[in-house]
Amino acid sequence: MKHEPVIVYSSTGCSYCAKIKSDLESWNIPFEERNVTNNDDYFKELESRGIYSVPTTIIGEEAVVGYRPNKMKALLGISL
Predict the structure, then answer these.
(1) Angle at CA of residue 11, ends 10 and 17, nearest 5°
(2) What pLDDT sits at residue 62?
(3) For residue 66, what is the DSSP state?
(4) Quick one: CATH architecture of 6-76?
(5) Full-model pTM
(6) SS3 6
């Protein structure tokens, strides 16, 4: 099944970031990780959207801020 592109904005040492990545892997959803600790440009990308916290998961054009697995499942079309 083809899904929208998924990007996870994370930071080093963020436990909720790790949980989101683990969930996506368990759901077999490919994603790109953008660590704002390691690359300031990624933080600037979030700022340009008016977002100042991680984890933030971008699914298609939708931003999910924080650890919200049920919302992510709904956007990805995964049964709750």
Answers:
(1) 50
(2) 93
(3) S
(4) 3-Layer(aba) Sandwich (3.40)
(5) 0.92
(6) strand
pLDDT value at residue 18: 97
- Can you list the residues of the chain whose pLDDT is less than 70? 1-3, 80
Indicate the burial class of 6 (C-beta count within 10 angstroms; 0-12, 13-18, 19 or more): buried
Domain boundaries, the chain: 6-76
Helix, strand, coil percent values for the chain (each to nearest 5): 35, 20, 40
Task: With H, G, I as helix, E, B as strand and everything else as coil, classify residue 34.
Answer: strand
In angstroms, what CA-CA distances link 27 with 7, 9, 21, 30, 38?
A: 15, 18, 10, 9, 26
Q: Output the CA–CA distances (angstroms, integers) from residue 26 to 21, 46, 47, 69, in the order listed.
A: 9, 25, 29, 12
